[in-house]
């Protein structure tokens, strides 16, 4: 059969009318193929819809699942560090207490200073009272209401949400979060997600939509700060970048709510590892502790000397030193004192800090400077060395105050006696003496004689230095070689950091020499 004959046969066959409404065969075949294509597309669409619905259900299930912190990994230490007049704050929030909480101010405008000291001998280390001194009148503390995920928002809040939606959510340095986002991340600010509490606010662990873990700090005493002022201060903090500072990722400012979102540091804080249940031997070796001291000092140096204007932390303590999995320290809560509306000059009417860490001039007069942080850092060094709390009423009376006890031990030439009993191995005598000297300089009662944090960094990293220059120093200050032992001790020069076996005299003066020692314990360290 020729090609023309085949073509004519196919044409005649396809052109024949069928019994289906008299339609030609090629029309019926075309309808069948089209219907098959439509059916396949419908099935594919149905499959995609089902998969998306299942993924959405799984995502919602992850959000509503309570977040459990790995307690066996990080020692559990109570984080309820109470601030005066905020003791029952969370109970008031649940009971629907009104937002403003007035302070019990002074009568007739008279000056009032109020300090709470622990009165119970069984007060745990992690539950030390915060100092809160008020001078003047009309001081008020306010806190945002706890808004759960199912709560309804008023018309003002709806307007705020609309404004947020209109603006770009990404800032120059971070992210502007909505209240709804943070409620979802923390499961409605659920109690089981609380990882810390303090005078500034409650910290929750949260998981964002992109599965990023964050620390959400719900600020309590924001003093009704205006949204514009709050944003200006937060953006100043958000642009601070240093490896030893906890990074601020973003914030939320809706209605009365002031919330900060930080990176989540997943290895707890220094207080938990120093005072928690870690067994008979601490995982914090001496090298790790030195790394924590050095990193914290560098972070504080950056706040004091690397920023303009400088930032005074005001609340340096072990629970504000976060640790990552490599034991690198990160300072948290920096900038919050200024953020929460405190006065901008160096004399403040609102003294805040944690009992045991606050510099004496700050607690008594309200005089604030970076030297106040230096004092707190010195207390922190002593805490890291000894494993003891700054104030511990469970110990004998002579050992309650860490500074007094450590000075007494050093004066008795028992420097090694201050070491944490849980240290797996003791440091060298040189390393221990260097850190003790730094700590004693930092807690000098005279703030002007304390070293700056940049100087502290150099002292901690120094490898060698003469601790005293016996004969020359005695001659410089009018003492003969036959002076009494006490006079010789009082006139020895302790240099910035480290140790050197034996004593040096003569002309080798270090480039960053410390001032002449004024206490016996400072010059007795090398005699330990």
Automatic annotation (TrEMBL):
Record Pfam families: PK_Tyr_Ser-Thr
Protein name: non-specific serine/threonine protein kinase
Keywords, in A-Z order: ATP-binding, Kinase, Membrane, Nucleotide-binding, Phosphoprotein, Serine/threonine-protein kinase, Transferase, Transmembrane, Transmembrane helix
Enzyme class: transferase
Segments traversing the membrane: 25-49
Subcellular location: Membrane
Organism superkingdom: Eukaryota
Substrates-to-products reaction catalysed: L-seryl-[protein] + ATP = O-phospho-L-seryl-[protein] + ADP + H(+); L-threonyl-[protein] + ATP = O-phospho-L-threonyl-[protein] + ADP + H(+)
Chief location: membrane
Membrane topology: Single-pass membrane protein
PANTHER family, A to Z: OS01G0323000 PROTEIN (PTHR47984), PROTEIN KINASE SUPERFAMILY PROTEIN (PTHR47984:SF10)
Any one GO MF annotation of this record: protein serine/threonine kinase activity
Residues that hold ATP according to the record: 217
Record-listed E.C. numbers: 2.7.11.1
Organism name: Carnegiea gigantea
Domain Protein kinase: 189-453
């Amino acid at each position: 059969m020729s090609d023309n004959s085949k073509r004519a046969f196919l044409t005649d066959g396809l052109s024949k009318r069928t019994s289906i409404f008299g339609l030609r065969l090629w029309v019926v075949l075309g309808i069948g193929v089209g219907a098959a294509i439509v059916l396949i597309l419908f099935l594919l669409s149905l499959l995609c819809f089902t998969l998306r619905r299942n993924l959405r259900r799984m995502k919602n299930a992850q959000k509503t699942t309570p977040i459990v912190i790995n307690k066996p990994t990080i020692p559990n230490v109570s984080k309820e560090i109470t601030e005066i007049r905020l003791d029952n704050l969370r109970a008031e929030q649940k009971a629907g207490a009104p937002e403003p909480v007035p302070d019990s101010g002074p009568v007739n405008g008279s000056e009032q200073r109020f300090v709470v000291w622990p009165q119970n001998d069984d007060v745990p280390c992690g539950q030390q009272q915060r100092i809160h001194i008020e001078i003047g009148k009309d001081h008020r503390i306010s806190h945002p209401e706890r808004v759960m995920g199912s709560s309804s928002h008023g018309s003002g809040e709806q307007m705020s949400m609309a404004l947020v939606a209109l603006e770009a959510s990404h800032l120059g340095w971070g992210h502007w979060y909505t209240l709804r986002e943070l409620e979802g991340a923390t499961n409605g600010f659920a109690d089981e997600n609380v990882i810390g509490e303090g005078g500034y606010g409650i910290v929750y662990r949260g998981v964002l939509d992109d599965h990023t873990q964050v620390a959400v700090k719900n600020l309590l005493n924001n003093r009704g700060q205006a949204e514009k002022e709050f944003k200006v201060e937060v953006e100043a903090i958000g642009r601070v970048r240093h490896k030893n500072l906890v990074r601020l990722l973003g914030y939320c400012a809706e209605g009365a709510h002031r919330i900060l979102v930080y990176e989540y540091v997943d290895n707890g804080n220094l207080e938990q590892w120093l005072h928690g249940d870690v067994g008979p031997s601490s995982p914090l070796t001496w090298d790790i502790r030195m790394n924590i001291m050095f990193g914290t000092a560098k972070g504080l140096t950056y706040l004091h000397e690397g920023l303009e204007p400088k930032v005074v932390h005001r609340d340096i303590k072990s629970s504000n030193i976060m640790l990552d999995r490599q034991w690198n320290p990160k300072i948290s809560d920096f900038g919050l004192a200024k953020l929460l509306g405190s006065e901008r000059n160096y004399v403040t009417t609102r003294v805040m800090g944690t009992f045991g860490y606050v510099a004496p001039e700050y607690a008594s007069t309200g005089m604030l400077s970076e030297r106040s942080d230096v004092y707190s850092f010195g207390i922190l060094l002593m805490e890291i060395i000894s494993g003891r709390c700054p104030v511990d009423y469970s110990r004998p009376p002579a050992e309650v105050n860490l500074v007094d006890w450590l000075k007494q031990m050093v004066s008795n030439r028992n420097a090694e006696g201050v070491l944490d009993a849980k240290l797996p191995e003791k440091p060298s005598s040189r390393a221990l003496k260097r850190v003790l000297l730094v700590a004693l300089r930092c807690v000098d009662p005279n703030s002007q004689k304390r070293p700056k944090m940049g100087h502290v960094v150099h002292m901690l990293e120094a490898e060698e230095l003469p601790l005293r220059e016996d004969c020359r120093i005695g001659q410089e200050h009018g003492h003969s070689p036959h002076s009494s032992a006490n006079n010789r001790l009082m006139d020895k020069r302790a240099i910035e950091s480290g140790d050197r076996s034996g004593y040096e005299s003569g002309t080798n003066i270090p480039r960053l020499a410390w001032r002449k020692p004024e206490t016996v314990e400072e010059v007795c360290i090398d005699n330990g």
